[in-house]
Amino acid sequence: MKRISLEQIGLKHKEEIYRIKKEYDNNKEDYNGAFFIKEFEDYDKLISGLDNYAKGIMDNPNYVPYTCYVAVTKDGQIVGLGSLRHELNDYLVKFGGHIGYSVVPSERKKGYGTRILKLLLKEAKAKGINDVLVTCSEDNIGSKKVIENNKGELEDKIEHDNKVTCRYWIRM
Ligand SMILES: CC(C)(COP(=O)(O)OP(=O)(O)OC[C@H]1O[C@@H](n2cnc3c(N)ncnc32)[C@H](O)[C@@H]1OP(=O)(O)O)[C@@H](O)C(=O)NCCC(=O)NCCS
Fold first, then answer.
1. FRET pair for 79, CA 20 to 30 Å: which of 3, 15, 112, 168?
2. Does ligand 1 have an atom closer than 6 angstroms to the CB of 146?
3. Residue-range definition of the domain harbouring residue 60
4. What digits encode the pLDDT tens for the residues 61-76?
5. Are the CB atoms for 113 and 78 separated by under 8 Å?
6. Is 20 domain-assigned?
7. Adjacent-strand bridge partners of 135
């Protein structure tokens, strides 16, 4: 595993985002934790929209402000993505939580997922969020371990649409 840091997604990440997007598409990923790069027509517009959401300027009243990040190595390689919701709404309390993350398919099982969540928790703390809700599907063994590696405490499990969502609190 290389040393990584989190950067808010921006214009300078364009080439790398297109590279990893190909990998997600070839892997037939559903973009869980990587929703913000799933579909866009114009990269510059994507970034200006995401910049606005990070500042709390929303175009959808059902969405709370959120910041999107890339996890990059020193030489600029993106190994993963993350997002941090600045607050929770009724849906996020039940299913989405504060944080989402995804590791680029070819970089999984190297420790990046655990590291990315740790870095996202630092970002949450910097925004004054001390009790962080993180959720994952009960059958997502990798994600469960990532959360438990970061001292997640299981609050409960919610059954919906033939799925079970595990809700964890990480208290800092
Ligand atoms: C879930 C995910 C983020 C894990 O990332 P990762 O970089 O593989 O995680 P790590 O390397 O830190 O692994 C953490 C632990 O989970 C284990 N693990 C990871 N993927 C696993 C899998 N598919 N099956 C079983 N165990 C797995 C690792 O071996 C490691 O175990 P350890 O702590 O006992 O050593 C990654 O698989 C992913 O991006 N999945 C798609 C998106 C997603 O599901 N996001 C989460 C949304 S809730």
1. 168
2. yes
3. 4-129
4. 999 999 999 999 999 9
5. no
6. yes
7. 167
Whether 55 is covered by a domain: the verdict is yes
Average pLDDT of the residues in 102-128 = 98
Q: Tell me what pLDDT residue 106 has.
A: 97
Q: Is 103 in the pocket of ligand 1 (CB under 6 A)?
A: yes
Report the candidate in 131, 137, 128 with the shortest Cα–Cα distance to residue 153: 131
Give the C-alpha separation, 31 to 72, whole Å.
18
**10 Å Cβ neighbour count for 5?**
12
- The domain tally of the chain equals 1
Closest residue to atom 16 of ligand 1, CA basis? 142
Q: What is the mean pLDDT of residues 14-35?
A: 97
Residue 99 located in a structural domain? yes
Any ligand 1 atom below 6 A from CB of 113? yes
CATH code assigned at 34: 3.40.630.30
Q: Which of 116, 145, 168 to mutate to test the pocket of ligand 1 (most atoms within 8 A of CB)?
A: 145
Average pLDDT, the chain: 97
Q: Which residues partner with 8 through β-bridges?
A: 69
